[in-house]
Amino acid sequence: MLEGSASFRLHLVVTGSHLSKEFGLTINEIHADGLRVDQKIDIEISGQSSLEITKSIGKGVIAFADYFQRKKPDLVLVMGDRYEIVAVALAAFMANIPIVHISGGELSLGSKDDVLRHVITKLSSLHFVSAEEHRKRVIQLGEDPETIFDVGEPGLDDLHEIELLGKATLEGLVGRRLDREFFLMTFHPSGVSSLDERVENDVKPLLQSLDHFPDKLVLCCLPNSDVGGDAIKDDLLAYELANPERFHLYGSYGRAAFLSLASLSELVIGNSSSSLVEVPLLGVPSVDVGNRQRGRLRGLSVVHARNEKNDIVRAIKYATSETQKETAGKKISLYGDGYACEKIIATLERLELEKIRKHDFYDVDFMLPSLED
Questions:
Q1: pLDDT per position as a tens digit, 122-138
Q2: Contact at 8 Å (CB) between 147 and 116?
Q3: Does residue 26 carry a pLDDT above 90?
Q4: H/E run at residue 102
Q5: Which of 131, 167, 124, 166 is closest to 147 using CA atoms?
Q6: Smallest Cα–Cα separation from 124: which of 185, 56, 165, 77?
Q7: 204: pLDDT strictly greater than 90
Q8: Is residue 79 classed exposed, middle or buried when 0-12, 13-18 and 19+ CB atoms within 10 A define those classes?
Q9: Domains in the chain, start-ordered, CATH in brackets?
Q10: Which of 127, 147, 285, 336 could pair covalently with 328 via S-S, beta carbons 3.0-4.6 A apart?
């Protein structure tokens, strides 16, 4: 949509796991959408340890510093909370290039991404958030209210724009007949290494809970490249080997395929934000496992479960009940109406570039609790 605006000249840089064969080489989806990639910047370092990811961030800062020095953009537009985006934002901030940040102010307290998101907010000059609660949180971080706009979640825009794939096409992609009810599963690492988070990174309770539903086919996406992803992947591969008829592990079929599979599934389960953001608008119930998404807005179609086998079994039974299916069918979203991109571009078009600069710290006038309380 930005590419079609007469007010902007878009330079798209692709980095991170978009360039990885292991994660589906999803740059091909960008090409398929007809977008021109200005440059590919490979910052991946083999492995998913804290040290290797830290080195990847450093590699990204250097590479993007060079890119910004050559291109000298007027604005840098970033989204979300990934460590790759921290590298982009640091390089832009040090080059005195105003940063426009999408999806700040959210919470995912069970993930290291939560802190990274706030870091990106503090480096940014302009903020597009997905809910009024998130707008208030960005103000709390010291950002001027006049620089913060509640536009909704851009990820929902796809639901208006993407043509969902039919069952036959999906069966060709998956290599499985979808002639019975199936669950769609995603389980990512939390990205941190404390004792509690090692518990959160354990996918075994979720896999054990699936044994209580032997008639269900489960399609499961590979975990992302955060710390702990390798161990989760090994457990998933072992489970697939032991249950080849009812468990299928895949890399990436693309955004359209994911939304299409989710729309046809009986249940979406795991710890991805998609269970809370996109899936409710598809009319499908979801089970959010563990604390990775703790703090996010959670609609009535989302059932939470502790990362314990018995609690996950309970949540699955409730989520697949007729009552919960009826609730999910109302398609109620807490993240906007699915037209965020139009609002973002309209706002950018009317703002003067000179006014999109990092502002002074905005102090919130509030009363601290008494130490005696």
A1: 999 999 999 999 999 99
A2: no
A3: no
A4: strand 99-102
A5: 124
A6: 77
A7: yes
A8: middle
A9: 12-157+338-355 (3.40.50.2000), 159-328 (3.40.50.2000)
A10: 285
